[in-house]
Design brief:
Length: 117
């Protein structure tokens, strides 16, 4: 009886720690970003955070670009349309394990976290 109880508790503890590991591992990954061009035009995109800047280059219509950054800060995206017009997103804070999605439309950039609906 005692041996059986001990075995059940051992399995329960192993499952508990297994679940903890599964939940904790993503927090060690670099923040990931996906920029989606929902327009019918190619757009030129630049990501800015702290004193850093990354040119994502031209993103074709109805396509996306993915990248990651080994940092923790607030990022904003600047988009230049073919006609010369520019728009900028609101800054969005990122940290380890976070995924940010930016949707580019003809007149704005909407940024959100992946887990938001």
């Amino acid at each position: 009886m005692i041996r059986r109880t001990f075995n059940i508790l051992t399995v329960a503890v192993a499952i508990f720690f297994g679940v903890l590991v599964i939940l904790a591992v993503p927090s060690f990954f670099d923040p990931a970003f996906e920029v989606v061009n929902k327009t019918t035009l190619p757009v030129f995109v630049v990501a800015e955070w702290r004193n850093e800047e990354k040119e994502l280059g031209n993103i074709a219509p109805m396509s996306s670009y993915e990248f990651s950054v080994n940092d923790e800060a607030a990022m904003k995206l600047r988009v230049r349309y073919p006609g010369g017009a520019e728009t900028e997103s609101e800054p969005i804070y990122f940290t380890s394990g976070i995924q940010v999605i930016a949707m580019i439309t003809i007149d704005a950039i909407k940024v959100r976290y992946d887990h938001e609906t």
